[in-house]
Amino acid sequence: MNVGDPAEMPVFDMEIDDQYDPVKWLREREKSKESEYKFVKTLRDQSELCRQRAKIHNGVDLAVPYGQTHQDGHGLEAFDWFAPFRIPEKIQHVLVYIHGGYWRALDLPESSHWATAVTDFGAIFVGLAYRLAPYQPIQTMPQRICHGLQTVFEHSYKKISQKTKNTPNIHMHLVGHSAGAQLIIESVVHAIQLSKQQPEQPQQQQKEEQGDYRWLNSVRSLILLSGIYDLRPIISTSVNQALKLENLHQAWQISPLRLFAEPDTTIRIPTSIRWLIAWAQFDSPAIIGQSSQLINFMRDYYGNEGDKSECKSGSCDGRVISFCVTNEDHFSSIEKLHGGLKQSNFFKKMLQFISVDSEDV
């Protein structure tokens, strides 16, 4: 978009709002708010089915807290943890899902809708929720999610040790949809910054945040679906009523696109982390364009690192893979994960993508 004056106050733009309203671009359903209610109910019902099934073999820990857990409807800081019937001894893949909802909607009850599909393939599934806007500023969400991810890592390490009687070898994969994709990248960035700044922090702050970046060493991939990577257009939409971003500069400072469009040498995302950047065929052109922009900037970024990596049509030296989820829209691409391989091309792609990570282990 034309950024104009970075300090310019946001003005609502109906055309931009329509471009970022997923309901208006749904493929085969009524384009109304009723579709949103049905979508939320579907995710909640699917999540409950997964929880009930996991309880049969005592393979689930529900609402594990990492912070605010008051049932006020504004987002729990907690996660559901699902284990397969038998946890592998060699490598333990842990998929952590961070929901979308434009930073202001959905919660823990809707976050575990595809847990069974994951555990059926021998991996651990975690549905992680977070405090929503405007009850938590979007700028502080990555910090809190970092704490949540460290709690997930510690919980997984303990449970795996108990069940396998071996030292865990955790391979963590972070999966984010829509706003969740932005939060994943920004949480990784926060962890990188925290790991560098920790020794310089006051003792009390060190105590509060100690270890909140250690989970980063276990991350093998970021799996992003229909993400929002440039928040500058969002300030002109109704979403900004909750986010309260004041200008383009403020929006850019929390936009993952900046990491590759204007690289900061102090923030180096580990090259061991691989990226799967996906979108739904019937997402809006604006949301599809967000993924395209990120992919193009990443190809330039990795292609100019001086490591002789050559960016080709589908990847950047194998680090960045792009994928279109055909015949799906913003909602159906997520709903169908519940059915695993039988219903979701995206789920199949994820399994193929993750398996590459274990080939050299």
TrEMBL record:
Residues 95-239 form the Alpha/beta hydrolase fold-3 domain. It comes from the Eukaryota. Keywords: Hydrolase. GO terms for molecular function: arylformamidase activity. PANTHER family: AB HYDROLASE SUPERFAMILY PROTEIN C4A8.06C, KYNURENINE FORMAMIDASE. This is Alpha/beta hydrolase fold-3 domain-containing protein. It comes from Fasciola gigantica (Giant liver fluke).
